[in-house]
Amino acid sequence: MKNLCFFVFLFLYAAFFFTLVFGANVSYDGRSLIIDGQRKLLLSASIHYPRSVPAMWPGLVKAAKEGGIDVIETYVFWNGHELSPGNYYFGGRFDLVKFAKIVHEAGMYLTLRIGPFVAAEWNYGGVPVWLHYIPGTVFRTYNEPFMYYMQNFTTYIVNLMKQEKLFASQGGPIILSQVENEYGNYEDFYGEGGKKYAQWAAKMAVAQNTGVPWIMCQQWDAPDPVVRL
Ligand SMILES: *[C@@H]1O[C@H](CO)[C@@H](O)[C@H](O)[C@H]1NC(C)=O
Ligand SMILES: *[C@@H]1O[C@H](CO)[C@@H](O)[C@H](O)[C@H]1NC(C)=O
C-alpha cells in the first residue's frame, strides 16, 4: 500500500512537472475540447480586466472559481494598449500579463479573445481612433492599412504571451485564443472584401504558432484548423 501511494504521488508529481515544462496538449474534435487526451466540458466566464483595478483581480477570479467556473475569458482591448502606432501601454488596469498570471495561480484556464474587435460596450469596438485617420483604412475588411495594423497588434500580443510562457502549450493558462469576433454576422455587408478578410484573419492567426487552437465565434466558413463556433 505504501508503495502504491508512493507511485501515485510520483505519477502526479511527474504529470505536473511535464505540464509545466512541456505544456499541455490542447486539441478538439467535433464533440469537445481535449486536453492531454481527456475530453473536457468547461464552464467559462468573462472578466474584462480593464473594467476593474488589479487589486480586485484575485478576488474576482476566486469568486468565479468558487462559483464553479473553469475558464476565464476576456477580450484584449486594442485601443487601451496601443495608444499610437507602436506605442504600447500595459500599466495599471491594462496589465494583461499580470491578469493572466493571476488566472494561472488560481488554477484556472484562460481564453484570450485577441480580436481585435470588442463587442462589449467599449468605445469604437476597441479599435484605436488613430487608425481611423490613416488614409485608406476601412475597419474590419480587406484593405492594406487595417490588416497591417491588426496583424501588427495580434503579433505583439501573441509574442508577449509567448515571452511570459502563458500559452498552455508552454505550461501557461491560455487554452484558446480568438481572432476577429462574431464577424460571420457582418461579413455579407462587406461583400467580397468581407469574405477575403475573414479567411486572411484565420490564416494570419494560425501562422502565429501558439500551440493552442484558435477560435472564430460565429464564423461558419472559418478554415481548418480554426474552431468554428
Ligand atoms: C494531442 O492530442 C491529440 C488528441 O488527443 C492527438 O491526436 C495529438 O497527436 C496530440 N499531439 C501531441 C503533440 O501529442
Ligand atoms: C508594428 O509596428 C511598429 C510601428 O508602428 C513597428 O515598429 C513594429 O516593428 C511592428 N511590429 C510587427 C510585429 O510588425
Automatic annotation (TrEMBL):
Its EC number is 3.2.1.23. It is an enzyme of class 3 (hydrolase). SUPFAM superfamilies: (Trans)glycosidases (SSF51445). The keyword Nucleotide-binding does not apply. GO terms for molecular function: beta-galactosidase activity. GO terms for biological process: carbohydrate metabolic process. It catalyses: Hydrolysis of terminal non-reducing beta-D-galactose residues in beta-D-galactosides. Keywords: Glycosidase, Hydrolase, Signal. Pfam families: Glyco_hydro_35 (PF01301). It comes from the Eukaryota. Residues 32-225 form the Glycoside hydrolase 35 catalytic domain. Belongs to the glycosyl hydrolase 35 family. PANTHER family: BETA-GALACTOSIDASE RELATED. This is beta-galactosidase. It comes from Lupinus albus (White lupine).
